[in-house]
Amino acid sequence: xxxxxxxxxxxxxxxxxxxxxxxxxxxxxTSPVLDEFADESLQFxxxxxxxxxxxxxxxxLLTGEYxxxxxxxxxxxxxxxxxxxLSQAGYATAGFHSNPFVSRAYGFDQGFDTFDDDLHLGQxxxxxxxxxxxxxxxxxxxxxxxxxxxxxLAWLDGQSDDExxxxxxxxxxxxxxxEPPGEYATLYADRxxxxxxxxxxxxxxxxxxxxxxxxxxxxxxxxYDAEIRYNDKHIGAFLxxxxxxxxxxxxxxxxxxDHGDAFGExxxxxxxxxxxxxxxxxxLFVRLPDGSSETVETPASxxxxxxxxxxxxxxxxxxxxxxxxxEDRQVFSQARGExxxxxLRRYALRTREETCFCERDTETGAIxxxxxxxxxxxxxxxxxxxxxxxxxxxTDADEGTGVGEDxxxxxDEVGEEIEQRLDALGYK
Length: 428
Description:
There is one protein chain. The protein has 2 domains: 351 residues, Alkaline Phosphatase, subunit A (3-Layer(aba) Sandwich), CATH 3.40.720; 61 residues, no CATH class. It is 34% helix and 16% strand. Strands 5-4-6-1-7-10-2-11 form an 8-stranded mixed sheet, sandwiched between helices. A hairpin with a 5-residue loop joins strand 8 and strand 9. Helix 6 runs parallel beside helix 8.
């Protein structure tokens, strides 16, 4: 590959919270690969997602913009992604995942030469229908990590040695319902659950969290941790494949997550639209070609990923993960309310030591701080909220930039498959 411009490899895991990894202090041996990877990377100990759920978190991660800019009110992509920027800079670009919320149906194929979102689009109709039937019989809600690796490595093997690449793999294994495969099913749990049992328990935790007993909570955590261990193994297999192809030393490899997952710490499970640590604190590693390592305490955001990549292209971002540590830095997260709370916008500010939360009512404009905190942090968060309000009021979010339009999308078939996938993943 061209040595003047490194390849950029972005590996993200869905719903992977930092504090369930060994290198972030977890007691279980869930992440031997990432623990070792941390020893040859910049590891950010206080990294937070720009939001608490995929529909806002991934757009922010891929664009470097807060969700109120990255997407429209219909959640379609509304601004340029890092894939587009790298494509314009001469990179071959590809993305591989199976999360319906960031599929081509919402415009997320923008900027990718190859975009495999596992929706079976572009196949002969009979083949697509057969594949969907097989998936249903297998009780499969997403592509497993080994499948994502196989597809993305096949793409890598077809690329020219003269052209740098940008590759994004998004792994869904750590997203509920937690159904660790094979030997992982009982890695931590005392018994193996059927797919139906796992889905039922996960859905009940979302719908009726107070009904979850202590034993059931521990079972959910056991299954989640086993999914982490499975995913960790396959991230390791992918990194080994890069080494075997002599690509690792020509690449910047970034590993992170879109958001975390909750297990009743604040009365809820999964990752609804609240901004507590369990749903927003994520792992973040940046491996440079020379394998230099550092543990960084500076607060970081998933928004910084695109800024850092842009800096590698010669831009001058306001903040890069490669800058000297700044322990006084503040980072922000936000989330739209949903259902009966759709008029609310939630915001969080984090420093290295403290957190400040507030809610804004879009109907009245009132801002309510939901936890008592330092007055200076309140002032800083209020100023940030006012800035976001100006952004929200100054743009037509519904129209966006038009980058998400896809005249070739398969319409009703796409919508039907997305609905089926979302239902299986616990979204109703």
